[in-house]
What does this fold into?
Amino acid sequence: MSQALELACEAGDSGEVPVGAVLVSGNDLFLAGSGNKSIITNDPTAHAEICVLRAAGERIGNYRLPGSTLYVTLEPCPMCACALVQARIKRIIFGAADSKMGACGSVFNLTNSDHLNHRIEVRQGPLSKECGDLLKEFFGRRR
It folds into this structure.
């Protein structure tokens, strides 16, 4: 999670919403890491989670990433949660909960829905206060 937090800080320093994500394989091998890139790429889908899925898929040559764990500083939104389900991620560990768009149990529960074909183990993990503080400081400066 500390590496995801570093990536979130880098994203925030470049003007992006400070969210970072790191994906590791089932044997804890680093697959990919990224911060948000929506603003710099003019791509509304370039959330950290989506960037990580794209990079990991390229790296291993497969769009399925079974057994992998995603560490992300903010609870994934509906778009990202559904992409993570499609990728067959095993586990999501997130820092700060998202009371407006969280799709891993806060607002929606897409990662554990009976309507979808895959379930993801989800838990709020370490550094949740630091992840939340980073977002609060970022949005506080913008207001």
